[in-house]
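step=encode ok
step=design start
structure_in=
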């Protein structure tokens, strides 16, 4: 187990998901049902599957595109999304 990668992934995702639309959706769903465990398990499974897809796609892409270029593309995408959000176009 690569603990450095584990801790980096945990902290990054934990902080990114706080107050995110996913968390707000789960708050709304849990407020509308008595079955809190069903919401927890459904949301957890969805996050696990989305993460698995991300890992598989990342692994596939990294076989064809150097990691350095992936970092650059992701950085530009984050900046572009941030600018679009700040300008109200996203």
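sequence_out=
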């Amino acid at each position: 187990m690569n603990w450095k990668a584990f801790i980096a992934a945990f902290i990054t995702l934990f902080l990114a998901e706080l107050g995110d639309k996913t968390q707000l959706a789960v708050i709304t769903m849990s407020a509308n049902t008595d079955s809190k465990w069903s919401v927890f398990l459904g949301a957890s499974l969805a996050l696990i599957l989305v993460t698995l897809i991300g890992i598989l796609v990342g692994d596939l892409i990294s076989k064809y595109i150097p990691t350095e270029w992936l970092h650059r593309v992701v950085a530009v995408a984050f900046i572009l999304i941030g600018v679009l959000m700040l300008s109200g176009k996203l």
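step=design ok
step=annotate ok -> The chain has one domain: 3-86.
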